[in-house]
Amino acid sequence: MQDEMTVPPGFEALQSFAKWNLMTANERTTARREATKDELRAFYDGVLPHIESILDECDKFELGALPESHRGIFNIALSMAEIAPHIEFYKGDTGVPFAFEEERFIAVHGEDETWQALPPNGPR
After folding, report:
1. What is the mean pLDDT of residues 90-114?
2. Which residues contact 18 (CB under 8 A, 6 or more apart)?
3. Could you give the CA distance from residue 61 to residue 59 in angstroms, rounded to a whole number?
4. At 121, is the pLDDT very low, low, confident or very high (cuts 50, 70, 90)?
5. Could you give the count of Cα atoms lying within 13 Å of 94 in the half-sphere of its Cβ?
6. Where are the alpha helices (DSSP H) in the chain?
7. Rounded to an integer, what distance in angstroms lies between the CA atom of residue 29 and that of residue 64?
8. No. of H helices and E strands in the chain?
9. What are 16-62's pLDDT values in tens digits?
10. Is 4 helix (H, G, I), strand (E, B) or coil?
């Protein structure tokens, strides 16, 4: 997890969530599983009011061409996508209730830096 991140102007309030600036799906899943319910709730409540503006800002760029200045807020949005179901459906549980062990599921592209938007089944 990172302690600092660069954000575009207007997104300074998200600096306090820099530890959720995670580049890969595997990092986001691990961070969610290792967090507490209170940490998930604080992140969710703090980022939710900004999520629409984050997505609008990131949509200004072509897929796979996100500048370094915007990768932090993009990663925050992806962390929100990882965490939101756990707040909205699982009462803050950091795992998935009544499911197989998550460790059994291996993300094919879990180590890819998501901002690059690599094709899921294309050339590597």
Report:
1. 77
2. 2, 3, 4, 5, 72
3. 5
4. low
5. 14
6. 25-34, 37-47, 51-58, 68-88
7. 22
8. 4, 0
9. 999 999 999 999 999 999 999 999 999 999 999 999 999 999 999 99
10. coil
Residue listed under structure tokens 């709730």: 41
50-58, long-range: CB within 8 Å, 24+ apart, which pairs?
A: 50/11, 50/13, 50/14, 51/77, 51/80, 53/10, 53/11, 54/11, 54/14, 57/8, 57/10, 57/11
Maximum Cα–Cα distance across the chain: 42
**What is the C-alpha to C-alpha distance for residues 44 and 121, in angstroms, rounded to an integer?**
32
* Closest C-alpha among 97, 88, 94, 105 to residue 26: 105
- Distance, first Cα to last Cα, the chain: 26
